[in-house]
Design a protein that fits this description.
heterodimer, A: mainly alpha, 11 helices, B: FAD/NAD(P)-binding domain, Jelly Rolls, four-stranded antiparallel β-sheet, binds flavin-adenine dinucleotide, binds protoporphyrin IX containing FE, binds iron/sulfur cluster
Chain lengths: 298, 842
């Protein structure tokens, strides 16, 4: 019917939250409470239910814990997929992360109890150790997630609100152009020095440089330092081109160190995942070996 | 050009005057290789010239060739400066021209119209005589001229074609818009040219280039400031020109007058719409409104007999319309009276679904005769109006719209009547709206959701007037504007106060009410004042603040549709807080005395007002009590609120806010946005301003009155079904919306090719992975076919912006994909509440 007004709403649902509630506090710590309750329950069961002393894993409670643990590990791994599959639906990655963190921690209890504290140099203990490694790296991740964002944000503030990584790079480029122009009247020796700073790639540096934020062989700082030293031996002049170059180099240094602080914080926020995720895959491999071993050779 | 081609084809005596040295300057000036669109596609082309979607160069080439082939008599470099009738004075035909000075005062000039033939004067001194004139000069206009003494000297110029051709000169560039900045930088670029360039800026210097160069793009302004710092050129702030003489210019600076060397002045101070020129030809405009177009007959004849106006200047900003009109108008001049306008089939389709089987003209007459606000329109205006509107038929009992539906269109009842539902649960509580009147005006004016459900009371025919058509209508027909205003005031009052009030109760109040516009930041109520008026916010929003301990403290945010000022009226005494506009707003000022009479006659209303007041009092008391113990928290809360208002929250309906204490910078929001929208992200997380860990990323705010909508030739930007501002497929890529959005959230880009699925990336490493594919990958994987039509469409750049993920189950992908809960999308009234004070740990 051409003459009926179109339906007004698409009818798609939409969750609305009016406040910034972080993933740890999600829904008033729902997953923390759940995990804590489960952990208490499981420890209680382990302590009070009479079960065989050896080969705890093959008792009914052991099997249950093992199954729960294995499924939980697989589910925890699915976070990586959820994060990237932007399908429609009423899911929220924040809720997933919240559950991931607390159920992940619960795994310490589940996995350890499942082992029945029978550790040795075998694939079973390897699986447990890898699991613990993933969990510990996850805990470290929580720590960086909770502490570094503020610093990242503060480092970006400036007079106009906040500057982005791109703007930092642009600012450095622009300073480079100005330094280049200002350095034209310099003599060859000084120009070489200045050029060293100009040729420097702001993103250069090893992973270690990034992580520590320390760049001992920085060309800009070296150039600025040496230039200042040389000038100390020259007679003072008004309108000295060196003055201008020096001032510009100082500004560049400041911008560079700001950008490096930015890169450092970002690296820390991401680096732990390079342990967390690969070890997860190692864990799944070890876990499979463990399961196969249990069923075929026990 | 289309008109001249028709004239040539018919063998009429004609000349095409063109001020530049090429045809179709507006299209000539499009960027190189631009894909020109032929919208609206249902409209058939009627012209001797071809026109189909395609590359700018191809189209211009075809037109040039065809113009030569037809033997059109073109006179290039013929800039028309005046058109004068040389016949007898036409009795009673006097043109009034009202000009408004900067200080708001107006002067009226009257000119007597003379009959044709017309003398067309060119700037080069020539005169061309013509019996009829077709004015198709578009809306580009002419550059604004300098006004100080000496402005007419030959070295004062308004253009710069080749900056590298100018050597060893002292040059003053006036104006720091993009054009001025580009010229100045171009001239100073190469020191070897030896130019001494000074650029004048009226604004003061500020660390924020956005403030000192308000009309320029930020990168341009930054680059200019950089050149200044590097000594390549000089920016003079707070400086204007005083006088010009050969070789010298005198400047008015903050520290007094100064005279400097100057061999050339390049003034880039904007351009004036051609209205002044057109009015001086004796052509009347519909109103003094900036948006108004000339008043025209159905055949495009203006109020000056024999002068026809077509194209963008007549209010039709699309090329196809322009070309059709050129054809039609010449046919008419040549004596063809039976030609039906080319838009006839479009209008036929509009009326097709209605009962009654009338012709288009009958329908138009029917509407004009029935609907009060359409009375003052000419047939031509009505036709154009209907192209942007819809006629709809509703059966008795059908719902027209529901309470809280988004919608900014206006409805007019042409036949039958409708009911306003007062109570969602009780279908019998209704207020009737009769034939001939309008409804839905609240959505139109405030940009907010519908305030009530409307149901057809009998079979009825309504016209749904799109926001654009309604704005145009108001600027063209002053009586319609007044009628809409009055009805909207009355309805707003009735709706707001409810409580069984009827029209008659508020008649006096409505009569005395006045619509006042308020600039952003101005106060309508000042703490400590003694006045007693009440204000209803009609457009925009307000913030309420109170002086506590010597500092203004933010108390609350008032969206459009709320009222303020009742406390002083009900309880007496001085104003207890200051209310100021968060953005440019409009309020209805209601006389306090008149309103208190209504209050005393209606105890129920008084009771309600008291209740509202109590709630507000409690909020204020709460904030003030916190201020004693937690003054730091309150200050932060206040300043955050102010920051958000400065970031456009005052006009937003839905805005993305990031808590930087939670944001880990993973950019999953951007990736999610790209992955749910054609592979292009509609938000830039890192860009945008921050304050006290609250970050407003560059992403659409879905403004109540979107600036981006203002100038879209195909009208491609609409408010969608979920309240989102969205751009549809008819976008022609002109970039107007990108320039008009004050928050810089629109990008012009082409859609990248489809990526392989997530699983093949995860397991096989295929494709670029989640998020926006890198430019290189897109380029490599675009599947060109070799067919120019298809390839051009692949390369077509369109305006891209956030659509609020409307229609996607679950809502905004950016929010759902944030692993830490840092990103939320909120409306200002949800976010700017005292609840924040508690959450912030006070
Ligand atoms: C960037 C951009 C992209 C666009 N893309 C599209 C698109 O893809 N599809 C589409 O349909 N529309 C598009 N439009 C809109 C369309 O270009 C205009 O609406 C259309 O060109 C208007 O045509 P016109 O004939 O009324 O005026 P114009 O095309 O502006 O022509 C007016 C002519 O008159 C000349 N002139 C002006 N004053 C004088 C004078 N005093 N004396 C002598 N000559 C004078 C001018 O030099 C010019 O050549 C776009 C607009 C812009 C700005
Ligand atoms: C054996 C248990 C665990 C497994 C198998 C596991 C696995 C994973 C995987 C696969 C990811 C996805 C990473 C990505 O795709 O970017 C992830 C992310 C994460 N994990 Fe774990 N994890 C485990 C335990 C934990 C624990 C105990 C914590 C916290 C204490 C934790 C905290 C996190 C966090 C914070 C993220 C990042 C979320 C994001 O930024 O998207 N994990 N984990
Ligand atoms: S694009 Fe810009 S102007 Fe348009 S609604 Fe969004 S924020 Fe407002
Ligand atoms: S959406 Fe923007 S770019 Fe597209 S046609 Fe409209 S104004 Fe032009
Ligand atoms: S709401 Fe949707 S379209 Fe808008 S920025 Fe978020 S993900 Fe993109």
């Amino acid at each position: 019917m051409a003459s009926l007004a179109p339906r007004r709403r698409t009818g798609a649902s939409r969750e609305r939250t009016a406040t910034h509630e972080g993933f740890l506090a999600h829904r008033n710590y729902r997953w923390l409470k759940l995990s804590a309750a489960l952990a208490t329950l499981l420890i209680g069961l382990y302590l009070f239910v009479p079960l065989p002393g050896t080969h705890f894993g093959s008792s009914w409670l052991g099997y249950t814990l093992g199954t729960i643990g294995a499924l939980l590990i697989l589910w925890l791994t699915m976070l990586g997929v959820r994060k990237r599959a932007i399908t429609p639906g009423r899911w929220s990655l924040k809720a997933w992360t919240s559950a991931h963190v607390y159920l992940g921690l619960l795994l310490i209890v589940v996995g350890t109890l499942h082992s029945g504290f029978a550790f040795g140099w075998n694939v079973h203990t390897l699986a447990w150790a890898l699991m613990m490694l993933v969990i510990v790296s996850g805990m470290f991740g929580i720590w960086v997630y909770a502490t570094l964002p503020r610093a990242l944000s503060e480092n970006r503030y400036d007079a106009e609100g906040a500057i982005t990584e791109k703007q930092m790079v642009e600012a450095i480029r622009s300073l480079d152009r100005q330094i280049h122009d200002a350095a034209q009247p310099l003599d060859a020796e000084n120009a070489v020095l200045v050029n060293r700073s100009l040729e420097e790639d702001p993103f250069a540096g090893t992973f270690w440089n990034r992580l520590t934020g320390r760049y001992p062989k920085d060309a800009t700082r070296a150039a600025a330092g040496e230039l200042r030293q040389r000038r100390a031996f020259l007679p003072r002049r008004a309108d000295d081109p060196l003055d201008k170059v020096d001032a510009l180099l100082t500004r560049k240094e400041a911008m560079l160190s700001r950008m490096r602080r930015h890169l450092k914080l970002k690296t820390w926020l991401q680096a732990w995942l390079y342990v967390h995720v690969p070890v997860t895959f190692a864990l799944i491999a070890a876990l499979s070996a463990h399961v196969v071993a249990v069923f075929f050779y026990w | 050009m289309s008109a001249a081609s028709r004239a040539a084809q018919l063998g009429l005596d004609h000349v095409l005057l063109e001020k530049t040295d090429h045809l179709s300057d507006t299209i000539f000036k499009y960027q190189k290789g631009k894909h020109v669109m032929a919208t609206p596609s249902q409209l058939i082309l009627r012209s001797d010239q071809e026109f189909d979607a395609g590359k700018r160069e191809d189209i211009l080439e075809k037109w040039n060739a065809r113009t030569a082939e037809l033997g059109v008599n073109v006179k290039y470099d013929a800039d028309v400066k005046a058109i004068r009738g040389t016949g007898e004075a036409i009795p009673g035909s006097i043109q009034k021209i009202v000009t408004r000075a900067r200080d708001g005062s107006t002067t009226t000039k009257e000119i007597q119209r003379h009959a044709p033939p017309y003398a067309i004067e060119l700037t080069n001194g020539e005169t061309v005589m013509a019996e009829t004139v077709v004015l198709a000069i578009g809306t580009q206009g002419n550059p604004n001229l300098m006004r100080c003494p000496g402005f007419d000297l030959p070295h004062v110029t308004y253009q710069l074609d080749d900056p590298t051709a100018i050597l060893d000169e002292h040059i003053v560039v006036v104006g720091t818009g993009d054009a001025g900045i580009e010229n100045a930088r171009g001239l100073a670029e190469d020191p070897a040219q030896g130019n001494v360039v000074t650029i004048l800026n009226r604004n003061p210097k500020s660390a924020n280039v956005r403030e000192s160069f308000a009309t320029a793009k930020e990168p341009n302004a930054k680059a200019l400031a950089e050149d200044d710092a590097a000594g390549k050129l000089t920016i003079r702030y707070e400086t204007e020109t005083k006088a010009i003489e050969p070789g010298w210019i005198t400047l008015n600076t903050r520290d007094g007058e100064e005279r400097i060397r100057c061999d050339r002045i390049i003034a880039r101070i904007g351009s004036a719409p051609p209205r002044g020129f057109v009015e001086a030809c004796g052509i009347e405009f519909a109103s003094t409104d900036r948006l108004a177009f000339p008043t025209l007959s159905p055949q495009f004849e203006s109020s000056a007999p024999g002068i026809f106006v077509i194209g963008a200047l007549a209010g039709y900003p699309l090329i196809k319309h322009c070309m059709n009109q050129g054809y039609d108008v010449v046919e008419f001049i040549a004596g063809n009276r039976t030609l039906k306008p080319a838009d006839e089939p479009l209008l036929e389709a509009k009326f097709a679904g209605l009962p009654g089987n009338r012709s288009v003209n009958d329908w138009l007459e029917f509407l004009r005769g029935r609907v009060t606000i359409l009375e003052g329109m000419t047939t031509l205006q009505l036709r154009e109006f209907m192209l942007d509107s819809d006629a709809r038929f509703y059966r008795k009992g059908a719902t027209v719209f529901e309470k809280n539906d988004p919608g900014s269109s206006l409805f007019a009842i042409a036949d039958g009547s409708v009911h306003v539902r007062l109570d969602p649960n009780d279908a019998s509580k209704v207020v009737p709206i009769p034939t001939g009147t309008i409804f839905g005006e609240v959505g139109l004016i405030s940009g907010r959701r519908r305030g009530a459900t409307i149901v057809a009371a009998e079979d009825c025919i309504c016209v749904e007037i799109s926001r654009n058509a309604a704005l145009k209508l108001q600027s063209q027909v002053p009586s319609a504007k007044r009628a809409i205003e009055r009805i909207s005031i009355e309805r707003q009052l009735l709706q707001m106060f409810g409580s069984g009030l009827v029209k008659e109760d508020v008649a006096e109040v409505v009569d005395k009410a006045k619509i006042v516009s308020v600039r952003a930041g101005d106060a309508i109520i000042k703490e400590g004042d003694d006045d007693k008026d009440i204000y209803v916010i009609r457009v925009g929003s307000m913030i309420v603040e109170k002086e506590v301990g010597g500092k203004p403290v933010f108390l609350s945010y008032l969206p459009a549709g709320s009222y303020v000022g009742e406390m002083a009226l009900i309880d007496g005494g001085q104003r207890t807080a200051t209310v100021r506009a968060a953005i440019k707003s409009e309020v209805i000022r209601i006389d306090g005395e008149a309103f208190s009479r209504v209050l005393s006659a209606k105890p129920a209303l008084l009771e309600r007002a008291r209740k509202d007041m109590e709630v507000r009092r409690r909020t204020n008391a709460f904030v003030e009590s916190k201020k004693d113990g937690f003054s730091g928290v309150v200050d932060l809360y206040s300043e955050q609120a102010k920051f958000l208002v400065s970031q456009g929250l005052g006009e937003a309906t839905d805005v993305l806010l990031i808590d930087e204490r939670l944001c880990v910078g993973c950019d999953n929001c951007e990736k999610a946005c790209a992955d749910s929208h054609d592979g292009l992200s509609r938000l830039d997380r890192e860009a945008g301003k921050s304050f006290a860990h609250l970050h407003v990323p560059t992403s659409c705010r879905h403004c109540e009155h979107p600036h981006c909508m203002a100038d879209c030739p195909p009208n491609a930007i609409q408010r969608g079904p979920d309240g989102e501002v969205r751009i549809n497929d008819t976008c022609i890529g002109c970039g107007n919306c990108q320039r008009n959005c004050p928050y810089g959230v629109i990008r012009m880009d082409k859609v990248p090719p489809k990526k392989p699925g997530l699983l093949s990336w995860l397991f096989l490493g295929k494709g670029p992975g989640p998020g926006e594919p890198p430019y290189k990958w897109s380029k490599k994987n675009t599947k060109y076919t070799g067919d120019p039509a298809v390839d051009e469409a692949l390369d077509r750049k369109k305006a891209i912006k956030c659509d609020m993920c409307a229609g996607i189950e679950g809502g905004p992908s950016c929010v759902r994909a944030c692993p830490t809960g840092a990103a939320i999308r909120v409306s200002p009234d949800e976010f700017l509440t005292v609840a924040r004070l508690e959450n912030e740990g006070a």
